[in-house]
């Protein structure tokens, strides 16, 4: 037991959610007769959920700052629709339409941010208003009819990494390279972190063999998924939306853990008054967090439209709920100040795997919804119980802030 | 069995947390109808002991036994201890500001007829209770409209409504001004006559000396001493010696300042209340501080000391009306906290927990929080620089902690204050404003903070120290300004001032 703990590097309970995710995948794989762990299923799982996970990135920051954004689904739908309409009716080139969608995200974010930051209206109310407004606007401008999207966007919504180089590797070489980069980065950050642990007086340094074992295990895991994604039928590989998500995860993990702005987000969420007295511009932090959220909503909308090849009037309906659920399953606190990008991604993947596995088992969307609701409650209740028993939050501090992400 | 003259006896109480023995075989005996004071440094185990007594830590989670009025008690929760007649009033008041006095007093114990609240009866009883605690207000007054001193009295009235026999007051006067404190102590004497025993936890030795019948000193989770005293004839130094386990010859370190040029000068500073228009919080305040000088601000609670300091610190409080600030002789306009920090001002707020710290953060993140620019490498925060800074201050200020990675919420009050001071020293300010820097921390830690203040002055910083404790100001600072109702009413060198001369200026208007 102690050996396992050392390999995992700290508190076993921190890994509850990761463990739950692994168990879910394995159980679903067994029940569905091996249909879970197939290249095409996992490719679909990733490209079909990337947009929710992207929303969750922004939502994590909104929730850490002590607010909530209910408008993201509507904003995603609205920016996707404007993009499709601009390309069809005004013959805008696809890249200009994409930029237009992002700009709309920024403007909507500034709108939300203005009410929250300058007028002090709670985010819940501000974005409840935006949620209605932009849902109405989507239906209004589209006249309730789907609009075809530019062909080029399909690459971003459902494309795959290109094939090149020798065939003896037996898999997609782009995916292979990505996996190798992931392994090298993980090993590098683990070793760097190990070295840093040793410099903290009174801190606990994991033994070297544990770090090495951890690197080997995670490398094997990344290797497995590299193989899974890279060995599908010809023309498929690691999906482009997955790659975009991966890049955004790295950016936002760094943003929240390693930049002044990220520190300010946690400071405002933890204690607004103390933050203000430490020189943090609280209202600017609110403003930027909301603006960022809506821009990510636009990105999600673009990817979704690309994948669906058309923008529909109902696009984005209830996405905000999935994003919020991911954040809370990932252990963020409703009162703000607590939560990490990586834990949120694990939370989002739990939801995605549940969706996917239940679908493979032939469970209807009605029952799936019930099960997802129960899982959300159970995860949060478990976390709250652990906190109230005086223990540190299990999933909330998942992978302490000093650690770097896994990739693959 | 406990003898009949004892209302409470705690025997051999041991309470362990993972890795720490918070209480080690503690014994406490409290006589009927007495005022019993418990002293000890922060983290000595006083609060833990009271939590054991009141059932916050239920029977079975600690070792030892509790006898109350001759019977052994095994409380499972606070409700049980309250129904036995033991009530705690915590340092942080627990009233609901938006509700009335009556509603707060009967919160959780509402008087009902068939499920409906009997307002008439509740109000009638409230009036009685308020009379007992000497508070002459309308029972429908909202708590938010009352001062801290009055709220404290309502808390006591609430305890009385529960038929209390043993009242525990945790630092009851820490937020009160001198008048309210004296009033409260008088009330405790009255309660004693009415047959209510009080246990008082306090850092204020003069108060302990004034009213105690018995004193118990706890250090490092153990009872060091417990003896009966005669109120008014308590040897304060003896208590201090047993609290810290060493003798402190002088409560204030020796220091000689070498003031240089005036580096911080405020002229005709006027600030209006943000909530009550037309009400001035600061009226034409002018003062100056020299490099290497420690200047004290004396004033009663609500005199406008904090308001003045916070409005100087980037207009963080109230509405700025007029006035100028000169730093190193140059006039500056500080419109935000950010710009104040950039111009070399630091402000350590009076309320550590709500204004000074993000209790979710670790020590290392807190120490660098006010000047993140210093740990940037390009766009990114550099963890190595952060760690180096945190370690430097941990060593320099002797912050007692296993590691700088632990949360600030795990530290004792004195160590938390050292973290807050580190955070501001890290910004390398020229002007350091300390608002009640020693509130709620123990004698040993206070001494260390005083020494630190002296060191900062010796480095040529201008230090402003706001304090409610006059002996502290007289012992530490070089020059004292008095303030009353937003007006600076006097300026005295500390060597010429005494408590009386200061108090006079703190209670008169400048016109008088």
Question: Top keywords for this entry?
Answer:
heterodimer; A: 408 residues; mainly alpha; ABC transporter involved in vitamin B12 uptake, BtuC; 16 helices; 2 strands; disordered C terminus; B: 512 residues; alpha/beta; Rossmann fold; 3 domains; six-stranded mixed sheet; 32% helix; globular
Overview of the structural elements:
By secondary structure, chain A is an all-alpha fold. Chain A folds into 2 domains: 41-159 and 239-408, Orthogonal Bundle (ABC transporter involved in vitamin B12 uptake, BtuC); 161-238, no CATH class. Chain A has 16 helices and 2 strands. In chain A, strands 1-2 form a two-stranded antiparallel ribbon. In chain A, α2 (16-31) packs parallel to α15 and α4 (72-89) packs parallel to α6 (123-142). Chain A is globular. Chain B has 512 residues and is an alpha/beta fold. Chain B has 17 helices and 24 strands. In chain B, the strands form 6 sheets. Chain B has a 6-stranded mixed β-sheet, sandwiched between helices. Chain B has a 6-stranded mixed β-sheet with strand order 18-21-22-15-23-24, with helices on both faces. A 4-stranded antiparallel β-sheet of chain B has the order 2-1-4-5, covered by helices on one side. In chain B, α4 (119-132) packs across α5. The interface between A and B is medium-sized, with 27 and 40 residues.
The geometry of chain A reads as: globular
Overall pLDDT of chain B: 87
Query: Uncertain segments of chain B of ≥5 residues (pLDDT<50)?
Result: none
- The coarse overall form of chain B would be globular
CATH homologous superfamily grouping of the largest domain in chain B: P-loop containing nucleotide triphosphate hydrolases
Taken together, the total number of domains of chain B comes to 3
Oligomer: heterodimer
Low-confidence segments of chain A = 390-408
Tally of helical runs of chain A: 16
User: Terminal Cα separation of chain A, in Å?
Assistant: 27 Å
Helix % of chain B is 25-40%
